[in-house]
Each structure stands twice: as structure tokens, then as C-alpha cells.
């Protein structure tokens, strides 16, 4: 009997194998006859499919004999359904008709660089972001792009994270989403923790290094990030992404889309939840977000409404790790109060229009509103009543001047406005002109309250010990044009005017009354030339950017001593090649600063540290970026940035506690390194595809020594580091799913102990014979070997 069953089983296997068929064919543009690369081919009744290669060819294996219902689709084309009988004989060619629908790319075209634009940039697709998107914040996903250094307060890449590009921090990197400014109007920074899992709703991203072409928001002082959110998907879909890994980290994302309804409408939505304990003790994150987009897509007009929000609760770890604990207690966190947390929610509303006006004109406009509110809570041990404008407490014959308190520092702000542009392209294509601008207002309340005191005295819960308001109006208008002078030779010009009105009133947290207004008018010109031939573009440009001081420079300085605005003169020149199996970019740059604002240790009249202008400083370097596809199985990529980042002269102020009366001692330095600006940053990536649908990746990152301040002192520096990660991706297309993908990311496989960020301060204390200088360094250590494992299901 066993032999009979075995024989039957073998017969069934043989019959099943014999009944399985393969189907091959090609997908073409019905009008031009060109191959469509990446078109989706799906056997709906059998749950199997594939995509077309660089020649428009596809093959679907392991299909059952009989009827197969084939659906072929491609963005910008009408989908085709066709029923075939397998086995199929003959050559299968499927032609797709282009749809007469307005493309969404124009929404971001006013702030984007094109191939002929004479500036340094890099574009990153949705697919590239998705490879690393297992829960870590946006800076970590961009870690292997040129000149980028990333860091994380919690050490795990989740929670408070940031990046520097060419040594410029977040407050000098301009960020736009669909052409709408995202930088905080007061601090000039972007807090990615307020946008958890934003990468899951990004269609593409352009990084411009240097001044670039950014036209909305604060002037770029190091780089700009230009995001376009998810574009229309013609087919209905649902997607579930789940990942889990080290430090009890989890990410759950659900996405759904209606596809194109009635050939005109589409709705997409996303819901995300990310949690992590963090590498550092108690540095936990509890993040949630959503993204909803609905749009009308006509032949000449697109109207979209985007609503997205992020809510975060993170346990504070921004104090850093003292140098004394660097070797034996890297997870140490200074904060121990159980609710030492940051709590914030930010809601975004975007109404966007893009349309064609005749054959030569396109228009783009957007209205936006962002509402942010939240606080961070702190336990303060033995704090002084006078710091909160409170009287001392008298109990019997004792006068109490200090007590333990818990306080909350609040932000409640509104940011709203509009941006618009009008684009003209001549009939011969030699003129490409964009005229546009924007007007935005920020209205922010800042206040602090005491929610508990061990010895409260004459106080009430929620008493506000400071309360102030700031209103900032930022308007800009620009005209930029590209003129083709001869075949492949183009001249580029960009003229921008910015007008800033900034007013603030109320009481500052140090007790000073704020009541003043400041106005700035800036002219930011850009000019360049490019030459394209045989897939290569040579370019050179000169650009100017001016920027106003940030909020702290107003509130921490005396009104009569507010710093001067900063100015940047930027020269970029390079060559990029985007054709064939070998692509590369090479460029040199000079970023020459006038009146750059830096911390020097100087204090104001109430003891708060302030930033001061340094007359002359610069960043100069060379950047190399290349990728080579050796075969269908092997791809190599690498980038290298070498730079000099120098301050010609500045004065450092050091606190002196060696005598009864507090003073500061000054030291003057010449030709020193700019803080946190490494002279070398490099990345390397190797991808190996041993079989279809399996991808093995090795990723390496090197960052040279960084100085914690501007003194170029080795005693105040971060060591160079070299890290290596492994990424493994495997995808299949089983029945009932469009795709199933498994991703494993192992970070820091060699357990490198490194710190990409930190801070320092020094002071004098009494010594045995003379005063002694004490320097305290604090670091933000990154985790050792850790992993994230993700499973993605697409229906």
C-alpha cells in the first residue's frame, strides 16, 4: 500500500510539473513603439506576475495550463486586460496607450534642479528609500548619500535623529514637501521625530548640496531636501509592512489606495506606528502618524489635498554621555525621572494645484497650514525659586530658597501661507522660465509652567513663569530661467528677493521682557552654465544666499546686540554622467561665509550663552560619486567627499570660577576647523543578486575625526569611525498577493563603538598653585550590532 501511495504521489507531481507553463512577451508604447521598462504584468486568476526589463520583456513562470487573465499596467498609460490560453504559441506583444492626464511632477518642478541645471544634486527614488525603511528616521535612510553624517540621541536611529551635509546641520538644510517649506521658522531646523515613517509616503527626493535652486522657505546654507509625496497609482492596492528588531523596536504600516476611479479620481491613505526602547537607557520612542491624499486628475489639471500628521512621545536622552562613562557604560542616561519626556503633535494640510494653460504655460500653486503643539517635561532637583520669579518660602524661622520641581515647557504654533509658480517653455524648447513666490506666516506661543513642587509655597498648579509670542512673516519672489544658447549649451539664472518681518513680545524664560521688531530684505542671485553631450553634463555656477538669525539669537542676546545676518557665496563646478552601466558625478565646491553665526562661549547679561558672528569662514571640497553595474548579478557603488572647513579667526570665551567673582577669559584662534565638519566622508555599497528576487548588500561608511568646537583641540574631538551593514532582500509573487518581500538589515556588523555627535564646554576652577582648566565632553553613542527584520505584503 505504501508503494501505491508513493507511486500516486510521484504521478501527481509529474502531472503538476507537466501542466505548468511559462508565458513571455514584450510591452511597448502604442504610439512610439518604445519598450516600457518596469511595466507590471499580472496573471490575475493565478496570482503570479512580473515586471518588464530594460528591453520591455517579461516572463512569468509556473503558470497552470488553461485560461490566464493577464493585466498589464504602467504609470501614465491605460491598463490592458487580455485573456490567453496556455500553452501559448506565437510572439506576444502588448501595446499600451498613453493617458491624457496631467503629470504630478510639475508640482515640485519649481524647486527642483533638472539635468541641465548647473548645481550639484542627487535624486533618490521611492524604491531606494524602501530598501532601508524598516522603522528608522529619514536621516538614517539617507546615511549613504554623499557628504552626509547622521546621528541619533537614542543611538538606534529612532526618535530624535539628525543629519549634517557638508558639515552643515539641520538648521542650515532647507526642506520642502511638494514645494512647501517645512523648516521651523524660529529654529530653522527640521525635527524628523515629528514626521514618523514619512518615508513611507515619499515618491521621490532630490538632495541639492550647496545653495542649489531652493526657492521657498529659509535660504539654504548647506543643502536642501526636496520631497514629493506619493503620486497617483492607477490600480487599487493594499500594503502591510511590519518590522521588528533590536531594542524592542517595532514598525507597523498599513497603506491602501483606490486606484484611478472614473479615470479621474484617486485616494491614498497610510497609518503607521513605531515604538522602540532605544539603545540608551530609557531613550524610548512612541511614534504614530497618518497620511491621507485625495486628488482629481484631469487632462490639463491636477488638484490634490494632502493631510498628514505625526505624534511623538520620546524619553529625553539629549543630555548625552559624559566622557567618564564612554568606555564602560555607553547606555548611560542622565535623566531618571519616569516622565522626563518630550510630547509633540504636528498636523499638516496641503491643498495643491498644477495645470496646463495652453501649449506653453503651466501653473502651480499650494495653500498650506501646519498646527503644532506640545511640551517637554523635566524634573529639576533643588532648583532656585528666583529662577521662576517666585518668592522664597518661609516656614517658622527658616527661609527656603530651593526646592524640587517638575516643569513643562510648551510650544503652541501655527504656520500657514501659500506658494505659487508659473512656467513658460517656448515652442522650440530653448527658453524655460519660472516666475513664482510665496508668503508664509508663523505665529508661535512659548510658555513654561510648574506642575509640581515639593515645597510649593504661594503657587498654583499651571502657574506660568514665562510666556512670550513670536510672529514671523516670510515672503519671497523669484524669477529663474534657462536659455539654450546652442545645442547642449545652456545658460541659467535665478533671482530671488526675500522679505522677513519678525516681532516678539512677552517675558523670556530668563525673566527679560521681549518687545521688539526686526526686518530683513535679502537679494539671492544665482547664475550658471551647463553643457550636455553624449550623456554627460559639465556645469559651473555661482550663487548667493542670505539668512536671518534664528529665534534664540534674538531672545538670548540683548536687543541692541542682535547678530548680523549671515551671507554665503557658493561656487559649484562639476561633471555628471547618467548613461550606460557606469554612472558618475564629480564636483568641486567653495562655500564662503560672511558673518557666520557660531557659539563661542560668550554669555549675555543674565548668563545665557549666545552665538556670535565670525567675519570669515569657508567650506571647500571635492565630491565623487559613482556606480558600476558589472553584470546582472553585481553592482558596485561608492562616494567620497574630501573637504577643508575653516574659520579664519574667532574668539572663545571660557567661564572662570577660580575666584569669588565670576568672570570669563578669552582666547583667540586662527585658521581652525569648523565644529562637527569632518574632512573626509565616504561610503561604499556592493549588491549581489545570486538568483532572481534575492538581493545581498554590503554597505560601508567612513567618517573622519570631528572637532566638538571650533578650537581644533584634539581633547575636544570625536574619533573617526568605520561601520559596515548588511541588507538582505527577498521577494516572491505567490498566489493572492502582488508581492511578498522579506528584508533583513543588520547594522554595524563588526560592533564598532563610535559616536557621530557630541558637545563640549570648558571652565576654570581653583587649583593648588594656579587655576586649572576643566573640559567636559559629552557624546551621543550609537548602538553596536543591531538588526531590523521586515515583512511587506502587497495586495
From TrEMBL:
Keywords assigned: Cell outer membrane, Ion transport, Iron, Iron transport, Membrane, Receptor, Signal, TonB box, Transmembrane, Transmembrane beta strand, Transport
Domain TonB-dependent receptor-like beta-barrel: from-to ranges: 329-749
Membrane topology term: Multi-pass membrane protein
One matching Pfam family: CarbopepD_reg_2
GO molecular function, one term: siderophore uptake transmembrane transporter activity
Compartments where located: Cell outer membrane
Cellular component per GO, a single term: cell outer membrane
Transmembrane as UniProt keyword: yes
Domain TonB-dependent receptor plug residues, every copy: 115-222
InterPro entries: Beta-barrel_TonB, Beta-barrel_TonB_sf, CarboxyPept-like_regulatory, Plug_dom, Plug_dom_sf, TonB-dep_rcpt-like
Keyword Disulfide bond recorded: no
Signal peptide: 1-19
UniProt similarity note: Belongs to the TonB-dependent receptor family.
Protein name: Iron complex outermembrane receptor protein
Originating species: Algoriphagus ratkowskyi
Source lineage: Bacteria, Pseudomonadati, Bacteroidota, Cytophagia, Cytophagales
Amino acid at each position: 500500500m505504501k508503494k501505491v501511495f508513493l507511486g500516486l504521489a510521484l504521478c501527481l507531481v509529474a502531472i503538476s510539473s507537466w501542466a505548468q507553463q511559462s508565458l513571455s512577451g514584450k510591452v511597448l508604447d502604442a504610439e512610439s513603439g518604445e519598450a516600457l521598462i518596469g511595466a507590471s504584468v499580472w496573471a490575475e486568476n493565478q496570482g503570479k506576475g512580473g515586471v518588464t526589463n530594460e528591453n520591455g520583456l517579461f516572463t512569468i513562470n509556473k503558470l497552470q495550463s488553461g485560461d490566464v487573465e493577464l493585466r498589464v499596467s504602467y504609470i501614465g498609460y491605460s491598463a490592458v486586460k487580455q485573456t490567453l490560453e496556455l500553452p501559448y504559441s506565437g510572439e506576444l506583444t502588448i501595446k499600451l496607450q498613453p493617458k491624457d492626464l496631467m503629470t504630478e511632477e510639475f508640482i515640485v518642478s519649481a524647486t527642483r534642479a533638472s539635468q541641465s541645471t548647473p548645481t550639484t544634486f542627487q535624486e533618490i527614488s521611492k524604491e531606494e528609500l524602501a530598501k532601508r525603511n524598516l522603522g528608522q528616521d529619514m536621516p538614517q535612510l539617507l546615511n549613504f548619500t554623499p557628504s552626509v553624517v547622521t546621528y541619533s540621541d537614542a543611538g538606534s536611529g529612532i526618535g530624535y535623529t539628525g543629519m549634517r551635509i557638508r558639515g552643515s546641520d539641520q538648521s542650515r538644510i532647507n526642506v520642502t514637501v511638494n514645494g512647501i517649506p517645512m523648516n521651523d521658522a524660529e529654529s530653522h531646523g527640521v525635527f524628523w521625530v515629528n514626521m514618523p515613517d514619512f518615508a513611507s509616503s515619499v515618491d521621490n527626493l532630490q538632495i541639492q548640496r550647496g545653495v542649489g535652486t531652493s526657492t521657498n522657505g529659509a535660504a539654504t546654507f548647506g543643502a536642501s531636501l526636496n520631497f514629493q509625496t506619493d503620486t497617483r497609482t492607477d490600480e487599487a492596492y493594499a500594503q502591510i509592512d511590519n518590522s521588528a528588531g533590536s531594542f524592542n523596536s517595532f514598525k507597523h504600516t498599513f497603506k491602501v489606495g483606490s486606484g484611478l476611479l472614473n479615470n479621474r479620481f484617486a485616494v491614498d491613505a497610510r497609518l503607521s506606528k513605531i515604538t522602540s526602547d532605544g539603545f540608551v537607557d530609557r531613550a524610548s520612542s512612541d511614534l504614530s502618524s497618518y497620511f491621507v491624499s485625495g486628488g482629481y486628475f484631469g487632462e490639463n489639471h491636477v488638484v490634490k489635498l494632502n493631510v498628514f500628521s505625526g505624534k511623538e512621545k520620546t524619553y529625553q536622552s539629549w543630555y548625552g554621555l559624559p566622557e567618564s562613562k564612554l568606555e564602560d557604560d555607553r547606555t548611560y542616561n542622565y535623566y531618571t525621572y519616569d516622565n522626563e519626556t518630550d510630547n509633540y503633535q504636528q498636523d499638516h494640510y496641503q491643498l495643491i494645484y498644477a495645470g496646463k494653460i495652453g501649449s506653453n504655460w503651466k501653473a502651480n500653486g499650494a495653500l498650506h497650514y501646519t498646527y503644532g503643539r506640545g511640551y517637554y517635561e523635566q524634573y529639576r532637583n533643588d532648583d532656585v525659586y528666583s529662577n521662576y520669579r517666585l518668592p522664597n518660602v518661609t516656614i517658622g524661622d527658616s527661609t527656603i530658597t530651593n526646592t524640587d520641581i517638575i516643569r513643562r515647557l510648551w510650544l503652541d504654533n501655527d504656520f500657514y501661507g501659500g506658494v505659487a509658480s508659473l512656467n513658460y517653455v517656448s515652442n522650440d524648447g530653448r527658453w524655460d522660465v519660472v516666475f513664482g513666490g510665496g508668503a508664509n506666516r508663523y505665529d508661535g506661543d512659548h510658555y513654561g509652567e510648574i506642575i509640581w513642587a515639593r515645597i510649593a509655597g504661594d503657587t498654583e498648579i499651571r502657574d506660568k513663569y514665562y510666556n512670550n509670542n513670536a510672529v514671523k512673516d516670510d515672503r519671497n519672489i523669484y524669477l529663474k530661467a534657462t536659455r539654450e544658447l546652442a545645442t547642449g549649451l545652456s545658460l541659467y539664472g535665478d533671482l530671488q528677493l526675500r522679505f522677513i518681518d519678525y516681532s516678539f513680545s512677552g517675558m523670556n524664560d530668563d525673566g527679560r521682557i521681549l518687545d521688539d521688531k526686526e526686518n530683513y530684505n535679502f537679494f539671492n542671485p544665482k547664475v550658471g552654465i551647463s553643457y550636455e553631450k553624449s550623456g554627460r553634463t559639465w556645469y559651473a555656477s555661482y550663487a548667493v544666499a542670505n539668512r536671518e538669525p534664528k529665534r534664540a539669537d534674538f531672545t538670548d542676546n540683548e536687543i541692541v546686540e542682535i547678530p548680523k545676518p549671515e551671507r554665503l557665496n557658493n561656487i559649484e563646478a562639476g561633471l555628471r554622467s547618467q548613461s550606460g552601466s557606469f554612472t558618475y558625478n564629480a564636483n568641486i565646491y567653495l562655500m564662503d561665509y560672511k558673518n557666520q553665526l557660531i557659539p563661542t562661549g560668550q554669555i549675555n547679561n543674565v548668563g545665557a550663552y549666545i552665538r556670535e558672528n565670525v567675519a570669515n569662514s569657508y567650506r571647500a571640497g571635492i565630491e565623487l560619486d559613482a556606480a558600476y553595474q558589472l553584470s546582472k548579478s553585481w553592482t558596485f557603488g561608492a562616494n567620497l567627499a574630501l573637504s577643508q572647513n575653516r574659520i579664519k579667526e574667532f574668539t572663545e570665551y571660557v567661564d572662570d570660577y577660580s575666584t569669588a567673582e565670576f568672570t570669563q577669559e578669552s582666547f583667540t584662534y586662527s585658521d581652525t576647523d569648523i565644529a562637527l565638519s569632518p574632512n573626509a566622508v565616504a561610503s561604499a555599497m556592493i549588491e549581489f543578486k545570486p538568483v532572481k528576487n534575492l538581493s545581498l548588500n554590503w554597505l560601508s561608511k567612513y567618517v573622519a575625526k570631528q572637532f566638538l568646537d571650533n578650537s581644533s583641540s584634539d581633547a575636544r574631538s570625536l574619533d573617526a569611525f568605520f561601520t559596515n551593514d548588511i541588507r538582505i532582500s527577498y521577494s516572491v509573487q505567490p498566489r493572492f498577493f502582488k508581492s511578498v518581500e522579506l528584508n533583513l538589515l543588520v547594522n554595524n556588523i563588526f560592533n564598532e563603538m563610535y559616536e557621530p555627535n557630541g558637545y563640549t564646554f570648558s571652565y576654570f576652577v581653583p587649583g593648588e598653585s594656579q587655576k586649572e582648566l576643566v573640559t567636559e565632553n559629552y557624546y551621543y553613542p550609537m548602538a553596536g550590532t543591531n538588526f531590523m527584520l521586515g515583512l511587506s505584503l502587497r495586495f
